[in-house]
Design goal:
Four copies of one chain form a homotetramer. Chain A contains 17 helices and four strands. By secondary structure, chain A is mainly α. In chain A, strands 1-2 form a two-stranded antiparallel sheet. A two-stranded antiparallel sheet of chain A has the order 3-4. The two termini of chain A are 26 Å apart. Chains in contact: A-B, A-C, A-D, B-C, B-D, C-D. At the A-B interface, strand 1, strand 2, helix 6, helix 8 and helix 9 of A face strand 1, strand 2, helix 6, helix 8 and helix 9 of B.
Chain lengths: 432, 432, 432, 432
């Protein structure tokens, strides 16, 4: 991902310093002539990044050594411009605004991955609207559903997940500028003017007040990322379960060398779906750390803010990886329609038990119908026969239904209820 | 809280069963004459709740024994109506829709608590807009701020927290109705009609498709609750720190018997603020559990949904308790303005160091000014003198500033920057 | 569970108050004649528990109103004895020591559940030591294993989990007694003597110093509980996966009414295994809350300790429920040996691919053997033939192996390596 | 930290491959002549680590491309040796055993940091055994304690934390070797012999059976790390609170450039203590991820194991950083004994209220004494007088105590109870 790399993070910090100088010049706080030199010096590829990293441990944050190097770089260009670097700001102003820049870049990439995942799953929803397969509840076969409806469920949650992330980002795209204690006193009367120019240069919004120890906007983004990982984790888990050797209804088509095993030549591991599952195991706790860090003391935290530094980037990376892997998986799976139908017949076709109850309900009360079918199911299981065989020879059933009616009742495609209508609504909402 | 109590939860389940019957009668799926008896029987105070709880362990969920008891209660009123109880539904339809009803009730109470907290903090923001106090960063005194600005920060985040919860709830206020596998096949062609009537009876929205294993709407609410706890936890932490014996800037006014100690008669513990902190320690992990439970298998989970059952109610309770405690604390704190000013003079008034840098910056470069003041601060600390005393005798300072200018520079009220403007914007946005 | 119920918790608090009085009488701090009345009054069934609960919110903790009621109860027996109730102690002394008593009771029940789970799984390990079944990695069939080895893995981790919990409990079985600030100053010179007698009366250990804000012993217990939930969650997940309709290798035998569905008469949901999975989803975050609460301020926390109050009991309950459900599941599952063997033949028997590589490795290099078998596997999958059929007609294979050798190589029971030896070692370590 | 760096992790993987070859040669599974070439080729500095990282995404884990490169490197030395690389093993064998090697290295460094932290805090415990300071509960001043007792509490928990980590590591220092499905079938009859030789070469223990999907040993280490972070987080929080400008009882002595601010020249931020707090905010969730990942499917996980890969190293790094920062902080803090005594007199010396109750208890009942002193405390607070002034003029008090007795009762050093005895015990246990 081209965001939250070491290089991009350093560059964002420098972009913020450059925008600050430009904004202060616009507001007349510092002379306009110094801006070009500051901007020219603010190039991460000219810095000794290893030295910055090691000095930051001592200083307590990474901006302190960065400002020092930037001042030197500006001084080398024009000595009297150096004093205007980082003028009136505090480290957190730079770090938080750079975080927002990185989030903007990263969320765009995640949005793209979610869009690709949606496109991939919409194709399945449309193509397999009437492809019957076993519903599965508590990991036991249940009444039939369609692969299209399963895909529509994925699509619907992906769509909401994408909207949610966009909404959270919209709220978070504001600069942070507060100076030492959040009053911008160091800028005298020019605080508001500088803040507005600063935001304009970075194409970000202006908050009503600085937010250095009010982290809810960032944490809201974290939550949206975490939910996206939950959504893709559910897709990944469904795919892995469907890809089981004994189920075999979908398969991740591997590229050469992908998903192989060092021990077993036949293996084709569903590595992309597993990546999404692993992301869904990790993301909840990364979100929790962001939440746990929220009670930040007074005007700048003693622990909570510092806990965010490694956590938020990792959450973004995990989310991007999960969404991207899901998009890839969804675009490359092979769907085995025959296997889906075969599996519905496995175990005597008991998955259609409710369908038979429904058919009988016209003639006897629903609880009575359920009792009859429960008895048939037990018999079928005990005698290793199919539900169809047992039903067709049962007096109670035969009294209510003719053989063709029984046949029809036990046909999965006849018992799909509103599946097609649901798929249609979901596709209309999210396009595809 | 009048939601998520054992009684309210049982009643919500029964309300959902009653609404389902009414909806199915509207759609012609079951006869209209049975609805009144089902509704009349659906009263939690008539049920043996202890028996339901113990039977639910065996059955795997609480709806199974509930439906059994409800059928019996209906049968007692009219025998042939019993068969129409829970017609065509599955347990999760009832549990999830009842969860939404409870969330609606609870979120209204939380919204009210947040509104009260906002009103209380808005008063402080307005009343103390110019009350200078030490800013504090890394728990060290920093440049001054005002108590009004601190309160404005609380207000701003409370306002966003409230909006965020409202938005999340808006998305979550939809019925769940899917039947065995989410196709509503048990309702034949009437699935959509029943779902719409069901929603109408409960005054909830209609989702595009059932969402029994797509939990993102609920988890979004969970996240909004968790963020609200983070917001109130930050307020609680600030209050507890300000209430420390050595700081003494605010105090929770206790009612008799409140916040006392069994050992020490002088104690007045900030119990409400601590309640908010404790909530902010617990909520992140409850949110994480909701996120971790998201990858739910196929059409109904084998673990994840079940993990939600105790978690979501507890998260709601913790959030309500935190928000309510915060509202109470904010409405009852005593603010000690004199102490705020005294504390700014403590430790030689070094908190004004940046103010002196700013004053000097007109005459020398800002880095030079910072170097001068850093020297003065070290001298003041070493000699136990005030920054003012050291500054007024320093040749460099005297060259740049007259004694009245030094005096003015070190007056906290002169170094508050945009604090008033920020407060004004926040109050305009959130009223109060 | 007969621990951490509301009643047992109130009684433990009262037991601690009674033991404190007895210990103080032993040390001569209070008169011996008051002890019998305090002990007689300290019976939870005589208290108005609802009133205690509601007053505790105001006071900040539940001991404050309890001591008040206890004093009144003692006064009713003998007026001048009331003053010796809770003498020199602070609320946290009572709460923490009562927590230890409840943990002792609960951990004994959890230990018993783990022992039952071990006994149940040891039977499977022994009985199925040579029952071949598909190994499964990344949820794809892999080289065969035995059901006995799978059970041995469960047993081994259950055994370690049980030892770990016992060890953590051994460290935690100490009284807490520190008075207001942890110095026991309220007891004058008698602090150590009282602490020792207090411990003796409760059959607990004596810590080197009070630990009211050093929570590591309790958190160590929490971690051991969490790991036990992870161990049982793994067993639960394996069982649910094996019980899938399409796999069908084990089945939870339900009692009547157990694991049924309100919609589908054929369902037999694995409710006990799912309980264990749900516990493993919840416990990690409950442990995390206990960890997150550890940085407790100075001599008594402002948030962290309070966050423990509901968390630790819930973690204990979840663990007991998970361990008990696992023990029940393991004692009641039906193992379908025929199905295990059938599944190994499914999908062309590719699960034996590595076995064929091993057989070929005597003749060609292992990487070459792997390349040959990889080719055969691709052919078998493409042509829907078995690995055996493809192998027996392959020139490379035939050059190296005779038909009986191929047959033997592809017999699962011939490719179980050290499984029996591993099982043997595990059974010897943990008995059974 | 010289462990869990990218380079050290690659080298550990290669060390494991080399040891495997040596072990297999010892057991006669592969020829002895190939070992030297494999060992010689297994040097991370000869590999293209960037290529390995990028290929690992495709393959699903990092061992697959590593083995490929290692085979090529061996082939370059001696063509027919290449086939014996990674013989009969699976990727997870290598990854897990290398993880154990890295944990061994890292835990030794963490143990060293904990030992340094213990030594530093033992000095304070001894030097300040009788240095009175305010106890603080709920962040309000309480009865006095000593700085030595506070330090003893830190020492005691550090000692237990260190022992706990050592014990967890002892249990985890075992090789993982199971082959494709955990049976070691690929090694024929030599499984046990190879496993023992493998362990001998790496100086690790032999487990009773492979543990590739039984993660409790590793998670136990994770829990011990998390608890260590909780212990150091508590120390960090105490230090930061004591270092507050208004408290000023300890101060982190900064090296030049350490803990400074880009805005305020007077700042000396407690960066080391804050590092420990930040670690204690992050670690709980990293532990929770390890716990959440435990229910790993069958013989190799589809998600849980993969979630560990980045989590465990990060937890180790966070723990090392926290322990090291704490050790540094404890060795470099300045303790301001005068300030400690001054703070006890602040707010009218009310912190001694319980001491006065104790003194009065000889004459009146303890509850009566508490009632008297509570009244005095309210009067003192209302009239801004000291508790001493109010007490000396109170008729009830004067009836019971003479002025010198009152004076003595309100002397902090006279009300330290068993503090010295507790410190003594803790120092005797942990040395120092």
């Amino acid at each position: 991902m081209e965001a939250f790399t070491p290089e991009s993070q350093w560059q964002s910090l420098l972009d913020v310093e450059a925008a600050l100088a430009a904004a202060e010049a616009d507001a007349g706080v510092i002379p306009a002539w110094c801006v070009a030199d500051i901007r020219a010096a603010a190039r991460a590829d000219q810095f000794d990044l290893a030295a910055l990293t090691s000095e930051s441990t001592l200083a307590g944050n990474i901006v302190i050594p960065l400002v020092k190097q930037l001042r030197e770089a500006v001084r080398a260009r024009r000595a009297d411009a150096a004093q205007y670097v980082h003028y009136g700001a505090t480290s957190q102003d730079i770090l938080d605004t750079a975080l927002v820049l990185e989030l903007r870049a990263a969320s765009s990439l995640i949005d793209d991955a979610l869009a690709r995942a949606m496109a991939g799953t919409a194709l399945h929803a449309r193509a397999h609207a009437t492809t019957a397969m076993a519903g599965r509840t508590w990991l036991q076969q249940a009444s039939p559903t369609t692969f299209g409806l399963k895909a529509a469920g994925w699509l619907d949650s992906l769509g909401r997940g994408r909207q949610r992330l966009q909404a959270a980002m919209t709220g978070a795209l504001v600069v942070q500028l507060g100076g030492a204690s959040g009053t911008l006193a160091s800028l005298g009367d020019a605080g508001s003017a500088v803040m507005e120019a600063f935001a304009r240069h970075l194409e970000l919004g202006v908050p009503d007040m600085p937010w250095q120890s009010q982290r809810d906007r960032i944490v809201h983004v974290a939550a949206a990322l975490g939910i996206a990982c939950g959504v893709t984790g559910k897709i990944g888990r469904d795919l892995v379960l469907l890809a089981q050797t004994e189920v075999g209804e979908v398969r991740e088509r591997g590229m050469p060398g992908e998903g192989t095993s060092t021990a077993m030549p036949h293996k084709q591991n569903p590595v992309r779906a597993v990546t999404a599952i692993a992301g869904a195991i990790r993301a909840p706790q990364l979100v929790a750390t962001m939440l746990a860090a929220m009670p930040q003391e007074h005007e700048r935290a003693a622990g909570g803010w510092q806990a965010e530094w490694a956590t938020m980037p990792e959450l973004v990376r995990v989310t991007h990886e999960s969404c991207d892997a899901t998009a890839q998986a969804l675009s490359q799976i092979e769907v085995d329609v025959a296997r889906m139908r075969d599996n519905l017949q496995a175990r005597g076709g008991l998955a259609l038990s409710e369908a038979l109850v429904s058919a009988l309900s016209g003639q006897v009360s629903r609880p009575d119908a359920a009792a009859i079918v429960e008895r048939l199911c037990r018999a079928a299981a005990a005698e290793q026969r199919t539900l169809h065989e047992v039903a067709i020879h049962d007096a109670n059933v035969r009294q209510a239904l003719s053989p063709p009616q029984i046949e029809s009742a036990l046909t999965p495609e006849h018992y799909l209820g509103s599946a097609a209508a649901f798929i249609d609504r979901v596709l209309r909402k999210w396009g595809g």
